[in-house]
């Protein structure tokens, strides 16, 4: 099934009217969350920092009314300010259920051990056996939110969702926004269309309640989103199923999502050297406190900052979390100092690529469902964003798109004046995310006009390593930096190259995919687990760094392996080892 061809994007429209919409920065305090952060803080004192995960404590479901638990907590004995470990554990057992117990196992009605038509191009028996094992992991990650959450939401930080969910795994016990796109790509390879649609409907329920898709389905994530990929999920399901009713149902929430990303919280106006004004978007959370899921970490990092500096720092950390890249030298003024994070001062290439694609998707869905007015409106919006990205983020000399640093000294009456020296010319995999559009809209008038230059630039960057694409070239100890490789970045770049109608590009894409699959295969054979990220320097080694220990499961890693095997297959005579 193919989508109708997109219209020609004929002219530059005025600045999109929604760019002046206002989204409130206020966040109401949550009594349960405030209490759980107190528990978290005292737990660190009692348990000590070794293997301490602050998220565990804000995920605990209450067994009783909050006031009773607070009173009992306040009455606990303290020795030099620290609760004895035996008393603390007794309190936790009496007043809380286990973290994650408010999600229960859900049977996947469309799961089959070996679906008809599953990975028909995978002919190697050993690789096929492993692919079926990865496919089977969907059963391990499937959950539904307990009815207890619906009946007593004040006892849970987990948010109620109506349908079956696929969680990433390990400490990530709840649904996450952008993870869900690659989960769905894997589910489509697994022929699990109903489960994929259910994920979309869960995310729509968040839009209907909060006005946007949350970072994740927890009360402490309501202050931010993640990269806007809901329309991409819908489009990919539609391409497999031809379900036009899905488009009708999702179009209104997608319009709300677009409004969120072009509101004055996210939107910035920049005037180029010719005097033309452009609107582009940035990440910006509505939060100025320690992130509840990492509050003890954030507080320790901010010890040397003044009160006003702390508020700004917490805001920038939460905004980096909205990007999905938490954390990376990409957002830092000084790559060795996380307190120099300045996410809101950056216009990101990938975010604006996602919003551009969102606008194309809305236009396409509206056309298919007969709403020509909305379709035309978003054609014009996409055209404006394309011109903005080409004018401000593309660097013809280096053949890449670069993030743009905002400088308050370049601003006048709310408009920034473009400075060519403000492009961040450091190398990140995100510089090549626009290539993904080659897979999504190969016949449309889009961002990529100098593909050969971009392909040459990618080869020269040093990002392509032995076992995947590195996230950056800077080894900072942050998890979204070298030597880590992440499944989403592999997939977007490989998917774009594979569909570029270039033998050279497809050959490069297949080589990257083969090596990424091999390193995941080797890691699985060593550990019996799929991993959140991989070290692209060493075959079979999972990634590290960041603020928590490496996680397994793992939703998007499984999805990308299955999607790449579906695209490229695995010949019978191809070796599976490194």
UniProtKB/TrEMBL annotation:
Molecular function via GO: alpha,alpha-trehalase activity
Alphabetic keyword roster: Glycosidase, Hydrolase, Signal
Pfam families associated with the record: Trehalase
Position of the signal peptide: 1-26
The reaction(s) this protein catalyses: alpha,alpha-trehalose + H2O = alpha-D-glucose + beta-D-glucose
Gene Ontology biological process: trehalose catabolic process
EC number(s) stated in the UniProt entry for this protein: 3.2.1.28
SUPFAM superfamilies in the cross-refs: Six-hairpin glycosidases
PANTHER family xrefs: TREHALASE (PTHR23403:SF1)
The protein, known as: Trehalase
UniProt organism field: Rhynchospora pubera
């Amino acid at each position: 099934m193919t989508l109708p061809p997109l219209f020609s994007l004929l002219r530059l429209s005025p600045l999109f009217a929604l760019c002046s919409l206002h989204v409130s920065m206020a966040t109401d305090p949550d009594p349960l969350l405030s209490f759980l952060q107190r528990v978290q803080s005292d737990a660190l004192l009692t348990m000590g920092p070794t293997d301490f995960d602050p998220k565990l404590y804000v995920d605990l479901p209450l067994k009783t009314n909050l006031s009773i638990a607070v009173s009992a907590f306040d009455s606990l004995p303290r020795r030099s300010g620290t609760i004895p470990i035996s008393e603390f554990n007794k309190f936790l057992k009496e007043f809380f259920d286990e973290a994650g117990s408010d999600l229960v196992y859900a049977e996947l009605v469309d799961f089959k051990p070996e679906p008809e038509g599953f990975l028909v191009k995978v002919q190697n028996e050993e690789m096929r056996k492993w692919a079926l094992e990865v496919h089977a992991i969907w059963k391990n990650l499937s959950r539904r939110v307990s009815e207890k959450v619906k009946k007593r939401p004040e006892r849970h930080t987990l948010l109620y969702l109506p349908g079956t969910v696929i969680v990433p795994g390990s400490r990530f016990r709840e649904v996450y926004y952008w993870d869900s796109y690659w989960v769905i790509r894997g589910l489509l390879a697994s022929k699990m269309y109903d489960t994929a649609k259910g994920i979309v409907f869960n995310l729509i329920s968040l839009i209907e309640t909060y006005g946007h898709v949350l970072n994740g389905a927890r009360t402490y994530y309501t202050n931010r989103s993640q990269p806007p990929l809901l329309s991409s999920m819908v489009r990919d399901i539609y391409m497999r199923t031809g379900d036009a009713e899905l488009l009708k149902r999702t179009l209104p929430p997608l319009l709300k999502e677009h409004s969120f990303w072009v509101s004055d919280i996210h939107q910035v106006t920049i005037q180029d050297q010719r005097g033309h004004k452009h609107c582009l978007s940035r990440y910006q959370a509505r939060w100025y406190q320690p992130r509840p899921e990492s509050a003890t970490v954030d507080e320790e990092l901010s010890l040397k900052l003044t009160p006003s500096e702390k508020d700004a720092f917490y805001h920038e950390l939460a905004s980096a979390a909205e990007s999905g890249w938490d954390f990376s030298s990409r957002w830092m003024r000084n790559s060795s100092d996380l307190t120099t994070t300045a996410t809101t001062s950056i216009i990101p290439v990938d975010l604006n690529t996602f919003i551009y694609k969102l606008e194309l998707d809305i236009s396409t869905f509206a056309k298919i469902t007969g709403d020509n007015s909305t379709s035309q409106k978003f054609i014009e919006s996409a055209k404006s964003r394309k011109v903005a990205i080409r004018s401000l983020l593309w660097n013809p000399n280096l053949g890449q798109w670069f993030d743009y640093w905002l400088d308050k000294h370049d601003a006048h009456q709310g408009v920034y004046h473009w400075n060519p020296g403000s492009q961040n010319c450091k190398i990140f995999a995100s510089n090549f995310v626009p290539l993904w559009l080659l897979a999504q809209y190969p016949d449309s008038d889009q961002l990529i006009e100098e593909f050969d230059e971009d392909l040459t630039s990618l080869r020269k960057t040093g990002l392509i390593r032995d076992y995947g694409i590195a996230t950056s070239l800077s080894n900072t100890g942050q998890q979204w930096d070298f030597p880590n490789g992440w499944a989403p970045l592999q997939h977007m770049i490989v998917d774009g190259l594979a569909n570029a109608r270039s033998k050279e590009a497809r050959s490069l894409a297949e080589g990257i995919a083969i090596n990424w699959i091999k390193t995941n295969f080797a890691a699985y054979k060593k550990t019996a687990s799929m991993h959140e990220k991989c070290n692209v320097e060493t075959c079979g080694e999972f990634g590290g760094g960041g603020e928590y220990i490496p996680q397994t499961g793992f939703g998007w890693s499984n999805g990308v392996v299955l999607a790449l095997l579906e695209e490229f297959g695995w010949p019978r005579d191809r070796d599976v080892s490194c």
